[in-house]
Amino acid sequence: MFQYGLRRLVIGFGMLIALSMLIFLLLRLTPGNPIDAYIDPTTPPSPEQLTNLRVQLGLDKSLPVQYFAWLQQAVTGNLGFSIKRQDQPVLGLIMGRIGPTILLMGSALFIAIVAGIVTGVISAVRRNSLTDLSFSVFALVGISSPAFLSALIGLYIFAVRLKWVPAGGMLTPGSAFSLGDLIRHLILPASLLAAAQAALIMRYMRSSMLEVLSQDYVRTARAKGVKEYWVIAKHALRNALLPVVTVIGSTIGLAIGGAIFIESVFNWPGMGLLLVNAVETRDYPVIMGATLVIGVCVILINLLTDITYAFIDPRIKVG
Known about the structure:
This protein is mainly alpha-helical. Helix content is about 75%, strand content about 0%. Helix 4 (about 90-125) packs antiparallel against helix 9 and helix 9 runs antiparallel to helix 11 (about 285-310).
């Protein structure tokens, strides 16, 4: 297991280096001059000031030199300073926003896993029934609906028309913190973020469960008179979860992309909203830092998914 985990860690490290190079290169290839973000348009600088600013920022050097200089600082935790936020450290901005994002994504992932596995098992057990058909339609709609469209529709129906939940934010402004108020603000964005992931997990769980239920050992257990509940829970469910674990890991990456839209629509003070605001204001250090942190999280989650998969199925370790 240690060797397997070490191999996955080396692969993850290589992916992280490739990601950092891609982020750096794409930002350098975007239209416009990066130095424009540092210039006050009301007081245009002189050519000498522009030259000095290029030297100060290291933009007079070649791209490889600029990249390794940035990477050296990033390894030590120095992600630079925000251009548009009064020179605040990028790492400080990210640490202030990562908590709300973890809360939102953690809640959404919990909802998605529970709903996806339960509905997938029920659909497989009651194959071709009205319940199975209803869950399948839900899964199709959930997978097909873009995150921003689901967010806007959910906001209009549940917050604007029905007024069941607040329309945005994480807490009610001007009121003391309470867990109930936080849950009221959290329930709608977390549920909408979980919808696509729950639909995907449900489809894989249903397919995997149907395959397992047709195996000989399941038929043997039923022939011996084992109760149907124990056949499903003890004999079928664990083996059916093997492919679903991988799907759960991959849905976390999709959830991060969906969280950007959800946080923007609901004004949720997380990493997604920080990244969107940085893109709008061309705040390059924040864009690079936030994207790198998100990439690290995705790679670590995939690593944990691989290790979890190996625990469930020991045959993976020898591959």
